[in-house]
Sequence to fold (110 residues):
Amino acid sequence: MSVHVRLDNRLLILRAEDQFRRCNSLDDDRICILCQRKFNGRQVEIRRFGRGKHELHCPTEGCSSGPHQWVYPGTLLVSDIVAPDWWRAAGKQQERRAAASALRLQGHRV
Ligand SMILES: [Zn+2]
Fold:
């Protein structure tokens, strides 16, 4: 169930919950690598769980991706997109390649 969050709170929640990049504005676009949808901070689906805790989700119905599956146009460093401890802990390159090909899908040069 999504909750209605006032716009000023929304930015605070985005900043708190989206630890993969700095969220400066609700107008920042991001692209979901699962459903290819482009959306901005106002459209992010915020779900509340527990007290003062929120989860961010892709606004596409049926798509439950979270911030680690979103890429930001203009973000060139793959390490900024993929959670650093993902690939560092795994010690392999697959996730980085996956992120790179996701970027290529969006027409970015990698
Ligand atoms: Zn999605």
